[in-house]
Amino acid sequence: GTFISSVVGSINEDCPGIAPDSEIYIFKLFTENRVSYTSWFLDAFNFVLDNDIDVINLSNGSSDFLDEPFIDKINELTANGVVIVSAIGNEGPF
Asked: I need a surface site. Which of 19, 32, 84, 87 has the fewest CB within 10 A?
């Protein structure tokens, strides 16, 4: 997430981001032990909808494709024109 934020929003003249005038919101959705809950994501997604945010970057990986509340909210976001960019391959070796 941090790397992508710099690629998008860097204001460094020698290495500008692709959208340096963008507003970047960072949501901490995992504990130090890599634990998270669907409700934390739903709260963040509702913030996105309530604040007319245009793009979400999900820099997290999960194999849980049956989380219906999460999937329903993703569908609501996209139906409202929010572009969602999601990482793949985060489950590789450490």
From this structure: 32
Which amino acid type is present at position 88?
I
CA distance to 31, 36, 56, 73, per residue, from 8 (Å): 25, 25, 12, 24
Asked if the model's pLDDT at residue 65 lies above 70, the reply is: no
Q: CA-to-CA distance for 49 and 44, rounded, in angstroms?
A: 9
Concatenated DSSP letters for 24-93? ------S-TTS---HHHHHHHHHHHHHTT--EEEE------TT-HHHHHHHHHHHHTT-EEEE---TTS-
What local confidence, expressed as pLDDT, does residue 63 receive? 62
Q: Give the span between the Cα atoms of 53 and 45, in whole angstroms.
A: 10
Judged against a pLDDT cut of 70, whether residue 69 lies above it is answered with yes
| Alpha-carbon span 85 to 59, nearest angstrom | 8
CA atoms of 24 and 78, how far apart (whole Å): 19
